[in-house]
């Protein structure tokens, strides 16, 4: 943050003038807060109109790349296809709100039991890809998801949570959780991939224009032994550009790279051996298809938050704040009623497992940490046929 400032770089420049006082108060509360920042209430103008429960849809906004994993013929080629698909999901997951809304926004904090369903239709024989998401915990916020393409024999199951803290003028987000991709093999059997999650750093707070940068390292470990190691760096590293990464693919039992890739995950990357393009996410993505609002269950994200989202999109932050408080108060009362009745909330689509055996088996292959993690297993109790949708009771 050193050096001369242009007018666009003045503190709080990205904040609406009427909101600068509340933004300054929010920054002070972040700087003085100890513990997990997710419990802090953000000013409405920095809220995204999208609930965190919708975020697993970003895994499959390029469904062709997801389906292509099943078409790879060898273990090495499958690991390359998984890496290519994974890198291509990062732009949607970590820059889409920045691009649409002018700066990074804080997602709406989901309520316990919140649901999101969607699909990407079959096009040119790639098969239909289906998505089921459930908010399985509110404190801390944990989102469980299941994404599958049955005709291609692909299933991704995972969960994510965040622990946030403030350091050096940035918000540091440790992503907790993992995903397991299972691939049905043509000759029978199954290959599994453990996908770990990168850390995030939210910069630009001083200017009121937050943006996400990925940090440190994440891994994709195949049950076949192939390992992708992805290192993330921000501006000033590698290419001197934001969103830079390097990825190395190593074969079973070896630390010698079989393939190397480098680039920026929000635009393009290349195969360092051939010089050919590896990933290119500058082309249009495919938004998830959801059912009509009037057919949704009250706990489905877009119906639950519709009035809050409208207020945010229209800049009516008073209305957004009122509607948000109404939902939060209803949830507090629901928890009080459950406590009084000696009952607890029952998950609809997922079952909590304290220790994930697939994670533990695969994380050992690269000596990853932590050595154990819990998981949420999909119950396979939701139809994703567009014309026949199962609705929770």
TrEMBL record:
Name the residue ranges with Basic and acidic residues bias. Answer: 316-339
Its Gene Ontology cellular component terms are:
cytosol; membrane
Output the InterPro entries linked to this UniProt entry: OSBP_sf, Oxysterol-bd, Oxysterol-bd_CS
A Pfam family for this UniProt protein? Oxysterol_BP
The record's Gene3D superfamilies line, in alphabetical order, gives: 1.10.287.2720, 2.40.160.120, 3.30.70.3490, 6.10.250.1430
Stretches for region Disordered: 316-340
Give the source's domain of life in one word: Eukaryota
Q: Which GO terms describe its molecular function?
A: oxysterol binding
Q: What family is this?
A: Belongs to the OSBP family.
PANTHER family linked to this entry: OXYSTEROL-BINDING PROTEIN HOMOLOG 4-RELATED, OXYSTEROL-BINDING PROTEIN-RELATED
Query: What is the protein named?
Result: Oxysterol-binding protein
- The species is Polyporus arcularius HHB13444
């Amino acid at each position: 943050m050193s050096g001369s400032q242009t007018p666009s770089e003045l503190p709080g420049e990205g904040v609406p003038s009427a909101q600068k006082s509340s933004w300054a108060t929010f920054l002070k509360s972040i700087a003085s807060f100890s513990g997990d920042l997710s419990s802090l209430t953000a000013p409405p103008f920095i809220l995204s109109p999208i609930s965190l429960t919708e975020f697993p849809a970003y895994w499959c906004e390029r469904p062709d790349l997801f389906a292509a994993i099943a078409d790879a013929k060898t273990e090495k080629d499958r690991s390359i296809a998984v890496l290519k698909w994974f890198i291509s999901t990062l732009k949607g997951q970590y820059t889409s709100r920045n691009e649409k809304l002018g700066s990074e926004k804080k997602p709406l904090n989901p309520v316990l039991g919140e649901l999101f369903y969607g699909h990407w239709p079959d096009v040119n024989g790639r098969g239909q890809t289906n998505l089921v998401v459930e908010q399985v915990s509110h404190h801390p916020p944990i989102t469980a998801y299941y994404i599958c393409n049955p005709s291609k024999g692909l299933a991704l199951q995972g969960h994510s949570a965040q622990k946030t803290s403030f350091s050096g003028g940035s918000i540091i987000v440790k992503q907790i959780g993992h995903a397991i991709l299972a691939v049905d093999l043509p000759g029978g059997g199954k290959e599994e991939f453990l996908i770990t999650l990168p850390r995030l750093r939210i910069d630009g707070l001083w200017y009121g224009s937050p943006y996400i940068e990925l940090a440190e390292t994440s891994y994709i470990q195949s049950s076949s032994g192939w390992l992708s190691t992805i290192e993330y760096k921000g501006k000033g590293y590698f290419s001197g550009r934001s969103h830079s990464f390097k990825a190395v693919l190593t074969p079973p039992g070896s630390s010698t790279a079989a393939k190397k890739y480098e680039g920026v995950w929000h635009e393009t990357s290349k195969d360092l051996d051939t010089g050919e393009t590896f990933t290119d996410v500058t082309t249009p993505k495919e938004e998830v298809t959801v059912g009509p609002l009037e057919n949704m269950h009250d706990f489905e994200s877009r119906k639950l938050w519709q009035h809050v989202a409208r207020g945010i999109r229209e800049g009516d932050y008073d209305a957004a704040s009122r509607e948000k408080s109404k939902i939060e108060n209803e949830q507090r009362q629901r928890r009080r009623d459950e406590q009084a009745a000696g009952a607890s909330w029952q998950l609809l689509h997922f079952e909590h497992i304290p220790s994930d055996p697939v994670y533990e088996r695969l994380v050992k292959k690269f000596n990853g940490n932590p050595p154990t993690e819990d998981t949420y297993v999909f119950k396979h109790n939701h139809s994703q046929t567009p014309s026949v949708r199962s609705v929770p009771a």
